[in-house]
Amino acid sequence: MEYLDFELPIKELEEQLDKCLVIGEESDVDVSETCKQIEKKLNETRRDIYKNLTAWQRVQLSRHPNRPYTLDYIRAICGDTFLELHGDRNVKDDKAMIGGLGKIGDQSFMFIGQQKGYNTKTRQYRNFGMANPEGYRKALRLMKSAEKFGIPVVCFIDTPGAYPGIEAEQRGQGEAIARNILEMTRLEVPIIVVIIGEGASGGALGIGVGDKVLMLENTWYSVISPESCSSILWRSWEYKEQAAEALKLTATDMKKLKLIDEIVREPAGGAHSNRDKAFEIVKNKIASHFQELEKLSPNELVKLRMEKYANMGVFNG
User: Fold this and answer.
1) If both were cysteines, with which of 134, 172, 254, 306 could 91 make a disulfide (CB 3.0 to 4.6 Å apart)?
2) Residue 83: closest CA among 71, 99, 70
3) What is the mean pLDDT of residues 144-152?
């Protein structure tokens, strides 16, 4: 397990607890009471740290190297039923955007999401989770297939943004994202969006239009990353913490502004600290929201979705 700077007190207590347990195993000394005290302090420290996180600390947690990615969620939720589908039928198969069919219980879903890598080699292979236009066009192709067969769509968002390279612009990055937003507003099947990590800019919006938009509590959703905001406003990355606060990018801020529907609580210590529990929580949320949405007709789904997004940002003075 890797630890962030503000998690170091937790690391120290966990190491103390491990040593205490080893001493108990290797000697005749009864250390059970000492271990209990350390464990109690560990739980209190963990609770205090994660209860008072700043916006920047939540950004750091969303990028935690041990945090589960899209494929981790899909494999845990669907098991052997997941069938990955490839290509946009135009340019190529974008490895930063993955999608395919999978089941929760007896219900089929079309899963789509950005995928990051686990090490240097896979990060390059996945282009650091930054999709090209063909990635968004692949996502749209899969959504339209789902619509054709009446299959609900689940989107997992975890991207530092759409790929900003020259080739991406040449192939129409802006058009691809705008097309997805347009088509998703009128897709005649339920769409559930779950932000599981970083939700940056148009890269997130390209698969972010949904009947229900859920955010895990240690994630962020914003038009720009704190570092980029800091570099534009202050000509330096040193003000990224200040920028994170000003951007109002946390799940709490998003819910307050009515831009998302629900904050999904993570296990104590974040999704990376208890991956199995995080998978179970997300699976149950998807299933429960689908039960609500499946009662609506295609016309009702589209009408309510369009009204929801049309009302965003409306200000009554």
Assistant:
1) 134
2) 99
3) 97
